[in-house]
Design brief:
The chain has 201 residues and is an alpha/beta fold. The chain has 6 helices and 12 strands. Helix content is 33%, strand content 21%. A 7-stranded mixed sheet has the order 6-3-1-7-8-12-11, sandwiched between helices. A 3-stranded mixed sheet has the order 2-4-5.
Length: 201
C-alpha cells in the first residue's frame, strides 16, 4: 500500500501544480476542431490526441454530421459532439483534425468535410488526418504533390490523387500532418502539439 501511495504522490508531483504533463508546451489560447464520424470512429485516434492537446491547454471542439451520441469502433468511446459538421468553420480554429476508423469513409466524398479541409488550407491552419481520414484530404485535392501517409487500404487513393505517398507512421508536409492508423495515434498527437507550439513562437 505504501508503494502505491508513493507512486501516486510522485505522479502528482511530476504533473505539477497546473496539472500539465512535464515537457509539454503551453498552448493556452489555442483551439482545435476534432471531426469524428457518428458511428465507428477509431477510439484511440480520438482519445489520445484529445487528451494530449487538452493537457497542453488547447480548447477542443468536437464536430460530427449528427449531434446524437457518437460511438467508437471499439465501443469504448461515447462522445456527444459540440457542433454539426455543416456549421463548423476552419477559420475559427488553429487546427483541424480528422479522426479515422471505418466511420471516416462516410466523409470521403462529403461536401462539408471537404469544405472544412479546404478552408483549413486556405486560412493557413494546421490540418491533420489519421488512419482512413487522409483519403478525405486527397479527395478534396489537398494532397497533390504533398508527402502523406494513410491506412494501407487507401494508399492507392492517395497515389491516384497525386499525393507523394510514404509508407510511414506519421508524415508532416508543411501544415498537413497525416498518420497511418491507431498505433500511430501517440506520435500523431505529439506531431500536432509540436506543430502548434512552433507556430506559437
Amino acid at each position: 500500500m505504501k508503494k502505491v501511495i508513493i507512486i501516486v504522490l510522485l505522479f502528482v508531483g511530476l504533473m505539477g501544480c497546473n496539472g500539465k504533463t512535464p515537457g509539454l508546451p503551453n498552448l493556452n489560447g489555442k483551439t482545435a476542431l476534432i471531426i469524428i464520424a457518428p458511428q465507428n470512429f477509431r477510439d484511440e485516434e480520438y482519445r489520445i490526441p484529445l487528451t494530449l492537446l487538452e493537457k497542453a491547454g488547447v480548447k477542443i471542439t468536437v464536430a460530427s454530421s449528427e449531434l446524437g451520441e457518437a460511438h467508437g469502433m471499439l465501443k469504448k468511446e461515447k462522445v456527444k459532439p459540440d457542433i454539426l459538421l455543416k456549421d463548423a468553420k476552419a477559420d475559427e480554429y488553429d487546427a483541424v483534425i480528422f479522426v479515422g476508423g471505418l466511420g471516416a469513409m462516410k466523409y470521403f466524398q462529403d461536401s462539408d468535410a471537404q469544405r472544412i479541409a479546404k478552408e483549413a488550407v486556405e486560412k493557413n491552419k494546421l490540418l491533420a488526418a489519421i488512419c482512413l481520414a487522409p483519403a478525405i484530404l486527397a479527395n478534396a485535392d489537398l494532397l497533390k504533390g504533398k508527402k502523406a501517409t494513410v491506412y494501407e487500404s487507401e494508399a492507392e487513393t492517395l497515389k491516384a490523387k497525386s499525393a507523394l505517398y510514404e509508407n510511414k507512421t506519421v508524415v508532416k508536409d508543411g501544415l498537413i500532418i497525416t498518420a497511418n492508423g491507431p498505433e500511430a495515434a501517440g506520435e500523431f498527437a505529439e506531431a500536432i502539439v509540436n506543430a502548434l507550439a512552433q507556430r506559437a513562437k
